[in-house]
Amino acid sequence: MNKYRNQKSGSYASKREAKRANELKLLARAGEITDLEEQVPFELIPKQLGERSCKYVADFRYKENGVTVVEDAKGYRDPVYRIKRKLMMFVHGIRVREV
C-alpha cells in the first residue's frame, strides 16, 4: 500500500482508476467517446538551469462530442495535485475533470 491507501489494480495506480479505465473503454467501443489515451503528460513549467521541468500526468484524455476532455481519477486531492490542476488551467487553459 502507498501513503494514500490506494491499492494497485493491474497496471493502474488504484482500483478507482482501473474502474474508470474500463468504463471509458466501453464508451469508446460504443462510439460515445473517441481518441482515448491514458497517462498523458503535460508540461507545466519548462526545464530551467539546474532544474527539471514540472509535468502533470493526466490519467485519461479523450474526445466527447468533439470536445477534448482531460480526466483524473482522484480519491485524495493532495496539495501538489491541487497546484498542478490550477497550473493546467493557467498554462494550457484546460480544466481537469475529476471522477
Question: How would you describe this protein?
Answer:
By secondary structure, the protein is α+β, with helices and mostly antiparallel strands. It has one domain. The protein has helices at 15-29, 79-92; strands at 34-45, 54-64, 67-72, 97-98. It has a four-stranded mixed β-sheet with strand order 1-2-3-4. It starts with 14 loop residues before the first helix and ends with a strand.
Query: Can you give the mean pLDDT?
Result: 93
**String of helices and strands:** HEEEHE
Strand order of the largest sheet: 1-2-3-4
| Fraction of residues in β-strands | 25-35%
Low-confidence stretches: none
Residues in helix, %: 25-40%
Q: Termini separation (Å)?
A: 21 Å
Helix/strand-derived class?
A: alpha+beta
Largest sheet: 4 strands, mixed
Tally the beta strands: 4
Indicate the radius of gyration in whole angstroms.
Answer: 15 Å
Overall domain count: 1
| Contiguous helical run count | 2
What best-fitting shape do the alpha-carbon axes yield?
Answer: globular
